[in-house]
Design a protein that fits this description.
The chain is α+β, with helices and mostly antiparallel strands. It has helices at residues 3-8, 44-56; strands at residues 12-21, 29-38, 60-69. The longest helix has 13 residues, at 44-56. The radius of gyration is 20 Å and the shape is elongated.
Amino acid sequence: MTDLTQQLKNYRLTTAEIFYRLPDYPELLQTFVWQELDLAPKFPVLGQFLNFWETNLEGRLHSVTVASSGLIKPAELRFVDGEFFWQ
């Protein structure tokens, strides 16, 4: 499915900041930023990625912060009262 098709099906640009611990240094937190088109509020694509992370990577997840925004939305226009002259 193309990005435009996904956006028309209400997929949103989703960004997740993932905090995780390395096995060799469990007292340190590392970060990883993940970004994809996903469906809010259940985020199935992010869920698949996190399941992959837990089963295939050694870094133990600490926390995940998620932000989501629709890319296709009504135009945000406002009228400005004034005149502009160009010379």
